[in-house]
Write a structure and sequence with these properties.
alpha/beta, eight-stranded parallel beta barrel, seven-stranded mixed beta sheet, 20 helices, disordered N terminus, binds acetamide
Amino acid sequence: MKLHLFVLILLSAFPFSGAFAQPVSQQSIFNIVPQPVKVQPARGIFKLNATVKIEVPSSDKEVLETARLFSKEISIPTGYHLEVVGAVAKNEKAICLILNTIPDDVLGKEGYMLEVNPTRINIRANKPAGIFYGMQTLMQLLPPVIENKTKITHENWNIHCVSIMDYPRFGWRGLMLDVSRHFFSKEFVKEYIDQMAKYKYNIFHWHLTDDNGWRIEIKGLPRLTEIGAWRAPRTGNYRSFKVAQPGEKATYGGYYTQEDIKEIVKYAQKRFVTILPEVDVPGHSLALIAAYPNLSCTQLPYPVRVGRFKVKVDNVLCVANDSTWLMLDKIFTQIATLFPGQYIHVGGDEAYTGFWDKHSKDQALMKREGIENTKELQSYFEKKLESLIISKGKKMIGWDEILEGGLAPEATVMSWRGMQGGIEASKMGHHVIMTPGSNCYLNEYQGDAVVEPPAEATLRLSTCYEFEPVPDGVDSKFILGGQGNLWTEFVANERHAEYMTWPRGLALAEVFWSQKDRRNWPEFIHRMEAQLPRFDAAQIKYARSFYQVIITPVKDDMVNDSMRVQLDTEIPGLDIYYTFDNSNPDQFYQKYNGQSLIIPAGAEQINVVTYRGGKPIGEQINMPLEVLKKRMK
Ligand code: ACM
C-alpha cells in the first residue's frame, strides 16, 4: 500500500514532463520483474472495480482459461468476480485479451503488448502464452496486496496508465526442484510452479529420482514406490546424517501417483509452464537399485540412501544387463505418456564407472562393441537411451557428462560443471541449456555461512544477476536458455525451499527473460525489493541475505602473517556499523568507511550490521576471527 502511495506522489511531482521521460526514473515506478523490453508511462489511472469485464473476442480456449484464472485469482483479495465475455460495449470498462490476427514478428510466441488506459486495458499477443505473460505483468501493476490470501477491504485497486512492449530473450527459462533428497508435497509443487509463472519462467525441471528416493508411480513396478520412495528418517544437518542402520525402518519419503502427476501437469499447462521430468540414470540410481537390486553390476541389496556415502556403493545401472533396458523401457514409456513436453531428462551426471570395470558382462560388451574405456561405455549407454527416448516420440536432455566418450546424436546438453560443456556441445551443433553451479545453484549459501542455515558453497544474489548464458564465441542460436537448480540435500522443508529460491529466482528470471542491455543491478534491486511485499502477501518465504555485510579477510602486507578485515555490501546505499568488543553494533557505533580494518589486539570477533536511511536492515553477523582466519587460506 505504501508503495502505491509512493507511486502517486512521484507521479504528481513529475507530471509527465520531459525530464520524467528518462528511462530509469520512468521505469522505477513500474517495478516489474523481469524487466520488460519497453515501458512507456501514460497519463491517468485505470480503477479496477467489480464492474470491469474481461473481454476475450477470439474465444481461444487457452486465452479463456487465462482470463478465468486471472478473474479467480484476483477475486480473493478484491472480492470482485470479473465476468469473462466475448464482447463488451464501447463505453464499458474492460480488460481485453486480443490475439493478433496478423502476427507481430517482434513479439514472437511469448511476447505481448500491454496498454493501460483509464477505461481499457488491452493485452495483445500472437499466442496465448503472450496473453498470459501480459496478465502477469498486469498483476505486478496492481498493489502488492493483490497477492493476499484473504479479502482486503481498504485498498484502491488502481493501475497506472502505461504502454508496455515485451518479449523474452530466451525460450528456455527454467527452475529445477529436487524432490528426491527431500520430498515435497503435490500442493507445494503447484505453488512453486505458480510462483515461477508469475516471473515468466516456463520450464519446471522436476528431478524425480536419485539415490535418496524414487518419487513417481510407474504402473507394473510397485517396488519403485513401495521400497524406492522411502528412506530412514533423519533431522538436523545433512552433513551429519547417519547412514541407514541394519534393520532400521524406512519411514521418510513419499511419491506422486500418476493421478498427482496428471493434476500437476494440467496445473502447469494453465500457467504455460512445461514440465521437464528427470529420471537420473545410469548413476544416482540407488533408490531404483534398492527396489530392484538385479539392475546393478554387483546386485547387492542396499537401502535407499540417507546421508553421504561413506564407502562407494553400487548406485549405477549395469549397461550390459537386459533387465536394465527392460526396466528403462517400461519407465520411459510411462514418463513419455504422462508428460506432454517434448523433452525427457535422463540425468547422466556423476556416474561412477568402477563397477563396470570389474564386471564380466560389461567387459564382454565393451569388447564386442570395440569400446575402449568406461567413459565410452557411458556414451554407449546414452546413445542407446537416446534411441529409446526418440522411439517414445521425445527428445533427450542430459547433464554435461553425456558429452564424455561421445555425445548422442541429437541430445541437448544441460551444462552444470561450468560453461565448458555447453560451449563444447554448441560447437558440435547441439542445443544447450546453461545452468553452471557458479551462477545457478540455488542450494548454495546466499549469505554468510555464519548466519545462514547449512548449505555448501556460496551463490549470492548478485552472482545470479551477473550470469550471462551466451559465452563469447558461441552462436546464440544453440543456447536455448538457462535454469536455476534447487538441490535439496540441505532443504528439509517447503518454507526453506522458498527461502532458497527467492529472491535469487527473481535475478535469474531477469537474466533469462530480459534483454541483455536492460540489465541494471541497482535498478533491479529497486524492482526486486518491490516484489517482497508481494511475497509477504502471498505468504511465500524469501531471503533477505542480500542486506548482509560481506566480510572478507585480507592479508596485512605490513605485518607478517596478520589479517585485516574488508567489509562490503552486495547492494548499494547501505551503511555498515561494526564492533570488535563483542557488543551489538547500531548506528551510534563506528561506521565503516571503505578502508580495510586493522584488528585490535585481543579482539575475538567482529560484529557487523547494515542500516539504510537510519534504520537497521541487514541481519547482524558476529564473526569469530578464528573462522575468518580459516577463510584466508
Ligand atoms: C549435478 O549437480 N550433479 C547435476
